[in-house]
């Protein structure tokens, strides 16, 4: 809800100025912060609410992004033509503000409700002592888990694919226009990613829910394939082939948001999901910040001595980073994982543990026991 209000402010302020340096703040900082707040809040909430079938639930939620990617490019093109860029920014701000309505409809889950009841039944001194002990143990366990090599590799992987993804999206329109595609057809090509996103997010959600399919293997396969396809994009001149590529691009990149939540739970446990997801998104934000600097390096002087982007080189860098991201994620498999670990079993209220369950350390067991009560 906070993100929706911040988004409204950011886009309205952007619509009121033409100074690029002010837009850096209003659009880049304020509106960008709002997107982070909304997206992180939604995915973390889904991760807490759904212990069984978490990947399917996440897939259904993020499918809204795929629908938007399919429908909005032509609509935005028409909005700019009808209302101008300033009016379009105000419309986007109004759409962001609608997220406050949906945020207000998110009810607290059972863990949050139990904590509130616990607070009412305990006196202030006991509650203060318990919270101090739990906070100290939680911070210690979090720092130990989030400081692992596997988590660092996954953060680095997130940085790489955010760089490559934003390079691709930044230069798709220019590449298609240089191949003689009209502005309206370019919007249809961008919409093709929405078709792939809708299918990919749903299919990846189903696949990731199968305990026999490794989430890291899915991640590796997705980004390896799209990396290879992107390397050959400059050689694709036919509109039909370009449309197929954009559909495949949406298909293979859309599922990453589902796999991120699943892989993080496997790497750092459900209790550290919120803090871990925040750090991962922070690394992704740095990846987006690196794109303008990288674009400066990719510039070439054309025949009129005007700086221009070397598109083949840009897509070569983008494709290579996709593949590097896939490899870095695959390296996190050194940490044994289980989608149905004892953390999940405890959240379902399983009092009896099977002998082959993964053993939890004493601190985490005590924390989960307090949460259950």
UniProtKB/TrEMBL annotation:
Gene3D superfamilies linked: MFS general substrate transporter like domains
Membrane-spanning residues: 20-44, 56-76, 88-106, 151-172, 184-204, 216-236, 242-265, 277-295, 315-333
Recorded GO MF terms: monocarboxylic acid transmembrane transporter activity
Lineage: Eukaryota, Metazoa, Spiralia, Lophotrochozoa, Mollusca
PANTHER family per the UniProt record, alphabetical: GEM-1, MONOCARBOXYLATE TRANSPORTER
Name recorded for this polypeptide: MFS transporter, MCP family, solute carrier family 16 (Monocarboxylic acid transporters), member 12
Pfam families given in the database record: MFS_1
Domain of life: Eukaryota
Keyword tags: Membrane, Transmembrane, Transmembrane helix
Matches recorded under InterPro entries: MFS, MFS_trans_sf, Proton-linked_MCT
């Amino acid at each position: 809800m906070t993100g929706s209000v911040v988004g409204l402010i950011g886009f309205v302020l952007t619509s009121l100025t033409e100074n690029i340096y002010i837009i850096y703040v209003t659009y880049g900082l304020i509106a960008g912060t709002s997107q982070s707040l909304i997206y992180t809040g939604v995915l973390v909430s889904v991760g807490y609410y759904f212990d069984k079938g978490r990947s399917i639930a996440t897939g259904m939620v993020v499918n809204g992004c795929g629908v938007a990617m399919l429908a909005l490019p032509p609509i935005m093109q028409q909005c700019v033509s009808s209302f101008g860029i300033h009016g379009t920014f105000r419309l986007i701000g109004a759409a962001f503000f609608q997220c406050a309505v949906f945020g207000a409809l998110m009810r607290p889950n059972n863990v949050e409700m139990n904590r509130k009841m616990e607070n009412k039944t305990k006196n202030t001194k006991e509650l203060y002592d318990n919270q101090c002990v739990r906070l100290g143990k939680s911070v210690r366990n979090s720092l130990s888990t989030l400081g692992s090599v596997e988590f660092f590799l996954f953060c680095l992987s997130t940085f790489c694919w955010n760089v490559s993804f934003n390079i691709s999206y930044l230069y798709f329109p220019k590449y298609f226009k240089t191949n003689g595609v009209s502005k309206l057809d370019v919007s249809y090509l961008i919409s093709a990613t929405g078709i792939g996103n809708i299918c990919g997010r749903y299919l990846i959600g189903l696949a990731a829910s199968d305990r026999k399919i490794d989430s890291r293997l899915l991640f590796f396969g997705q980004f390896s394939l799209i990396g290879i396809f992107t390397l050959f994009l400059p050689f694709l001149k036919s509109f039909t082939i370009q449309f197929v590529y954009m559909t495949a691009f949406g298909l293979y990149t859309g599922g990453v948001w589902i796999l991120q939540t699943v892989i993080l739970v496997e790497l750092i446990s459900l209790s550290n999901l919120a803090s871990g997801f925040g750090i991962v998104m922070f690394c992704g934000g740095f990846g987006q910040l690196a794109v303008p600097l990288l674009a400066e390096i990719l510039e070439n002087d054309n025949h009129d001595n005007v700086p221009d982007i070397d598109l083949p080189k840009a897509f070569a860098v983008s494709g290579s980073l996709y593949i590097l991201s896939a490899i870095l994620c695959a390296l996190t498999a050194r940490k044994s994982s289980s989608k149905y670990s004892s953390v999940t079993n405890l959240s379902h209220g399983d009092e009896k543990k099977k002998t082959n369950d993964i053993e939890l350390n004493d601190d985490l067991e005590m924390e989960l026991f307090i949460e259950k009560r």
